């Protein structure tokens, strides 16, 4: 087993919650801000740095990951919106299957395209079920993926989807309302998934403050992902880290 997945699984067994800071690759346009964000994440003892996004508007993905890796003493994990978002600078890639949707390209098509590159780069692939949950408004990910999110108030659908993912052999479950969402995944939905599967649960989308991060950890999230809040105010990572690490 690769080292990043092992780290996540061992933390779950010990009951240690993890914080992942998500870097939007387009951020690489502003190197000073990128450096400050990565350095703050490391100083705040965030556990993982994720890099990725549903839509790239610049052509600098690989160099952005290279810069993040240079400045970070944390594992750098790709959270790719497409097979174009692969880089040998990363330690691992979330090999995502969008199991809340019914778009075949995002269930197997992109994987076939990406697989030879993942092998050639030699980066750890973490088989991850990605569940998009309604967060109050359409997000870039719902538009770009052309999939319907799971209704916010239907924890049973999320639980059944997670069980299917676990039975298929996926190793982590990422529940997301999308970047900049109005609402986070509900504590009730996280609790329902937590009761139904053993695998580590990653939760992201719309998490802006320490109290919310703590509530979602207590509901059963193992990894909290924060992007927009840290991008808007790089200092906020310190309070988030304290809340997640309890
Ligand atoms: C989005 O889970 C991530 O896929 C993070 O969302 O940018 O809202 O923190 P935010």
Q: What would your notes on this structure say?
A:
The chain has helices at residues 3-14, 31-43, 61-71, 104-121, 140-145, 155-167, 187-196, 210-219, 228-232, 237-245; strands at residues 18-23, 48-51, 76-78, 92-98, 124-132, 172-176, 201-204, 223-226. The protein starts with a helix and ends with a helix. The protein is built from ten helices and eight strands. It has one domain (3-245): TIM Barrel. Helix 8 (210-219) links the parallel strand 7 and strand 8. It has an eight-stranded parallel beta barrel with strand order 1-2-3-4-5-6-7-8, surrounded by eight helices. The radius of gyration is 16 Å and the shape is globular. With 246 residues, the chain is an alpha/beta fold. The mean pLDDT is 95. The site of SN-glycerol-1-phosphate (1GP) has 15 residues, from strand 8 and helix 9.
Secondary-structure blueprint of this entry?
Elements: H1 3-14, E1 18-23, H2 31-43, E2 48-51, H3 61-71, E3 76-78, E4 92-98, H4 104-121, E5 124-132, H5 140-145, H6 155-167, E6 172-176, H7 187-196, E7 201-204, H8 210-219, E8 223-226, H9 228-232, H10 237-245
Parallel strand pairs: 1-2, 1-8, 2-3, 3-4, 4-5, 5-6, 6-7, 7-8
Helix pairs in contact: 6-7, 7-8, 8-10
The chain binds SN-glycerol-1-phosphate.
